[in-house]
Amino acid sequence: MPPIKEQPVRDLRESYVCEECGAAFRTRGLKNNHTNRKHRRRYNCDHCESAFALNADLQRHKRTVHKETIPSSSKAFTCPYDGCATPTKKFTRRDNLSRHMVRCLNAQAKPV
Ligand SMILES: [Zn+2]
Ligand SMILES: [Zn+2]
Ligand SMILES: [Zn+2]
Q1: 31 Cα: distance to centroid of ligand 1 (angstroms)
Q2: Residue 14 C-alpha to ligand 1 middle, in angstroms?
Q3: CATH 3.30.160 for the 14-65 domain, yes or no
Q4: What pLDDT, in 10s, does the model give residues 8-50?
Q5: Which segments constitute the C2H2-type domain (predicted)?
């Protein structure tokens, strides 16, 4: 029987060990840093397998890797008035929509 290979001994009492992967760190801060970056990836990319700890990282990933632009639905406004002549027209700026809504209301207020 060959002798059991000796494992390098780490003093675990002095280190903070990651529960997820067993990596040891000198300070709690380093360990938390590691856990957050490596294992707390709450933001999943809906285009690929990537996941990120920070939403900002995910957004950057989507922009750079998938050339994704900000979804138009969240940035575009449409006229809420029923009698609008152009109800599907999208306004990318709220002030543009406001100006349109004033015109829209005026147009509707006109006697036919
Ligand atoms: Zn870990
Ligand atoms: Zn991705
Ligand atoms: Zn309108």
Answers
A1: 8
A2: 17
A3: yes
A4: 555 556 689 988 889 999 899 999 888 877 887 788 888 998 8
A5: 16-44, 43-71
Residues of the chain with CATH 3.30.160: 14-65
Give the number of the ligand closest to the Cα of residue 105: 3
Q: Which residues of 13-49 are buried (b: 16+ CB within 10 A; e: fewer)?
A: eebbebeeeeeebeeeeebeebbeeeeebebebeeee
Query: Which residues have beta carbons under 5 A from ligand 3 (an ion)?
Result: 79, 81, 84, 104
Task: Quick: pLDDT tens for 64-100.
Answer: 999 887 654 456 788 888 888 888 888 888 889 999 9
> What is the model's pLDDT at position 61?
94
